Amino acid sequence: MRIQKISVLTLVAVAAGLSLTACDKGSDSSSAPVGSSSSTSNHSGSSDSSGSQSQAGPAKSESAVGVGTNVTNKAGSGAAPGTAHAPANACRTANLGFTTSGGMAEGELIVNLKNTGAATCTLHGFPGVDLKGRTGTISAARSKLAAHDVSVAPGQETRFTLHYPPNNTGGSGVTFTSLVVTPPNETHAHTIAQAINIPASQSGPAVSVDPVGAGK
């Protein structure tokens, strides 16, 4: 009987030991995911850091594009299109008087520019000329003549020629009643009352303008 009691106690002790061992193993395995989770958290922190670096990358690109755009705009803000340069003492619209006279041939109009300022000024290039009427507006194209500097002393004048197809069709044609003239290297225009009649269906040469001082 004593031997049997000892055996039972021994079995109980062994069972308890196995249970404790199982508990220890369970706590070890549960600690493993915690460690793994901590590692994942660190990895995700590294991703965030790399993400912030990738966000910084586009910011630099936009800055570079902005600089390139500024350089392009600056380069384009020099002389007016089609002119070689803008003179330092360029004539301004406010200091010019505008009149018109007949040209050397049919379909030509001379536009005279008089320096009404107190100092000599310079014109270089093609003026902008728009013909306006009740039916709309057309812009004169530039001729192939070369532009040169033209210095105009106070009280003196220079000129340019406007070419247009005269209306010899016998029909009423299209009539423009004013010219809007913008001197070279200027942004302010001056309107001149001037009637010009061209064919309704234009198949000949277009309206064109010479540079200031050409043919002088």
Which features does this protein show?
four-stranded antiparallel beta sheet; Immunoglobulin-like; 2 domains; alpha+beta; about 220 residues; 1 helix
Short characterization:
The protein has one helix at residues 2-76; strands spanning 96-102, 108-115, 121-123, 128-133, 136-139, 141-142, 150-152, 157-163, 174-182, 190-198, 208-209. It has two domains: 1-77; 93-209, Immunoglobulin-like (Sandwich), CATH 2.60.40. The strands form three sheets. A five-stranded mixed sheet has the order 1-2-8-11-6, with no helix packed on it. It has a four-stranded antiparallel sheet with strand order 5-4-9-10, with no helix packed on it.
Description:
By secondary structure, the protein is an alpha+beta fold. It has two domains: about 1-75; about 95-210, Sandwich (Immunoglobulin-like), CATH 2.60.40. It is about 35% helix and about 30% strand. It is built from one helix and eleven strands, in the order H-E-E-E-E-E-E-E-E-E-E-E. The protein has one helix at about 1-75; strands at about 95-100, 110-115, 120-125, 130-135, 135-140, 140, 150, 155-165, 175-180, 190-200, 210. A five-stranded mixed sheet has the order 1-2-8-11-6, with no helix packed on it. The chain is elongated. The chain starts with a helix and ends in a 7-residue tail after the last strand. The model is unreliable at about 10-15 and about 20-85 (pLDDT under 50).
